[in-house]
Amino acid sequence: MDSNGLRLFRAVAQSGSVAAAADSVHSVPSNISARIRKLEDELGAQLFVREPRGMRLTAAGEVLADYAERILALGAEAKAAVAEVVGGGGALRLASMESTAAVRLPPILAGFAAGHPRIGLSLTTGTSESVLQAVLERRADLGFAGGPVRHDRIVGEAVFTEELVLAVPHSVTSVEQANTRAMLVFRSGCAYRARTENWLRRRGEPPRTIMEFGTLDGLLGCIAAGMGVSLLPRIVVERPHLAGQISALTIADSRVETWVIRHRDCVPSRAMNAFMDYLRPPAQAA
């Protein structure tokens, strides 16, 4: 049972068919089918149920899929750790909520990159739910998501505390006046959207028009244009370039944490440890 066989097994498990798996790993279906049969012979168990429209995992296949994910991730971590020792650098893949990436991370990433020029940084953005999924699937080493994050395969800690405010067009001066406007929210899976929905329920407000956005810039632009209002961190709303376009109205029970998370089974690399030491306050890092 070698790593390449496990990689092909994982591709079939994720795609649901040999043909789709072959496309994703740039192989041929006959090679993948042969490797799957070899795995089944080695383990003495059927790993897939062959169906007319694809393949699905058996109970034994589900067990192997879990181990395969961990084995392949550990192999990748070992390769990266050796590369760090040899080259003195490494790579760090980050995933973050858009608002955190837009306001909190730029000075942190700039300072870290200046102090660790041989560590390659990459950053993807999305909702808290997509950040969590990226960390669970080992597509990101560290993630910034709305907290607290409770998952048996995740460890994390609070790194920022945000004050949520009602972001309104500059002409709106009260929460009551804002209640006549549409509520602008991020797509499902966003921590701030969940807080918005809870806030509306607690206030007992009647249903209002909900407009969903995929980007922070798009949402802010529509608030400035008078299309609606939104719950956002104060640090996002009160940036200088938004002055005169968007105002922040204080609301009750407005504190929300941002957590940095990693996979529980992940062995922290030197790059990860260096970043966490940089991210934490000096007293906490010590």
UniProtKB/TrEMBL annotation:
Domain HTH lysR-type: 1-58
UniProt-listed CDD domains: PBP2_YofA_SoxR_like (cd08442)
Pfam families: HTH_1, LysR_substrate
Record key words, sorted: DNA-binding, Transcription, Transcription regulation
Keyword Transport set for record: no
Domain of life of the native organism: Bacteria
InterPro entries xrefs: LysR_HTH_N, LysR_subst-bd, WH-like_DNA-bd_sf, WH_DNA-bd_sf
UniProt GO molecular function: DNA-binding transcription factor activity; transcription cis-regulatory region binding
Record family assignment: Belongs to the LysR transcriptional regulatory family.
Name of the protein: HTH-type DNA-binding transcriptional regulator, LysR family
Record organism: Magnetospirillum gryphiswaldense (strain DSM 6361 / JCM 21280 / NBRC 15271 / MSR-1)
Lineage: Bacteria, Pseudomonadati, Pseudomonadota, Alphaproteobacteria, Rhodospirillales
